[in-house]
Amino acid sequence: MLTLFIAATRLLTLEADEANILLGAYNVFGIPVPQASAAAYPTVTSGGLFPLIHGLLGLLTTDIGVHRAVSVVVVVVFVVATFWLLREMRVSRSLAMAGAAMSAATPGLLLVGSLAMAEVMATLLLLFGTLLWVRAGRRSAAGAVLAGLLFGMACATRFNAIFIFPALLIYALDFETGWRRKLLYPGLATVTGVFLLLAATQLYYLAAGTEAAGNIGTLTGASMGKDIFSFARYLLIANDWLPLWVIAAIAGTYVAAGRYVLRRRDRQLTALLLLAGGFGWLMWIFKAPIPHVRYLWPAMPCLWLGAIIVATTLIERARNQSARTAYHISALVACFYQVLTGSYIMSQGDSLVMAYKLNRTSAFVDKVPSWTAAADQKALAGVVQKLPSSAELYTINRNSAFPITYLSGRAVATLEGASFTDKPAYLLALPVDYALWRPTNEILSWRERNAIEIWRRGDFVLYRIRPHAPTPPLQRQMIGANDIYPSRP
Questions:
Q1: Angle at CA 23, nearest 5°, toward 66 and 111?
Q2: How far is C-alpha 80 from the geometric centre of its chain's CA atoms?
Q3: Is the pTM of this model over 0.85?
């Protein structure tokens, strides 16, 4: 499994959000970056520990493989922590190893754990926070403050982790006794965490030299305009990654058998993980801005780890050799499935396209496996880097060109509203342009008449735009706002 993650750091193309977030972190630390949205407006939904680590690392190198290695290290720590946690719950070494292997097969882990993104880092902080809460936070004000700091840093690192606070309050009302444990300590942890989240966000803005956003949707990355059909669509996608009946089975098994197979402290940890994962799962359906699997994190590992704890301890207490054997086989099958699907993902090319193939937004199309997409992307960036400094660069959607900006150091603008003179102008055609943004026939016809292909490698193409070409008939896209489709009139 580790080999698969290491291979993914080299074979997956640089992803648009990955490049954008890293550019924002570099800007804070004074590392020269091209003019991009990250330079003017930091991605505070991936702040906290993430820009601190990657910004400092960026002072030494901006090599994407090195930055992705940070995520792989965090994944290794997460798997080792799962093993240690199961051993602490008096699970045998062999079963604990099977449980740790199961954690390495968490749905979506390969995609978020091999890219330089904040999800796995926030997941680890959240796990440590829940451990500290059940061991000390629920018993004292000092422990509650320390747990709140970890929760706050998890949320600052990836805002998706905000679901931990309602989960904590509901957990305390149900599990604890006495007003201090029911209200005071969880309230103290929540206030501390929210304060740290707000402070870290403001500091990120100040360090970037910008003001805080006035739009809560921009600040949180939340979708503010979904309708009932969007809810249904997101529910279907979430159900693909972790079916609702599986969540119900996990919760039902915990309620039915938890008190018999888990110590009180372990029951509390499991309950908090399952509650947090459930809230995050619902939050993804109702408020995720785009149907990307990374918005299901850290909810997904919370549910998955809760299931691992319930299943592993139940089998340990049953002392049934057949059940133990079946669990080991299940762990091997889960890991094999991840290797198989992960290898397919890496063989198909663009990482963003594959993310949307896996959530049904982009259809699977049979194609000859290619392991060169990342090399093709770097080759295009190399060609772009050598273009004249006066050259103007364009793409159908600017966000999708952030990887080229990162790799080449050249800013890329959107075609929308562009006007062309005698200055040399070029159009980048990327795999994502055809798999996701679905350009209209009008824009394709415009390109046919006004652009000449001058370079191609794999699915990456560079066109030279004719001088004084007419303004392209491009409709504004809403990528990263409420949906991935063009705005409706």
A1: 55
A2: 21
A3: yes
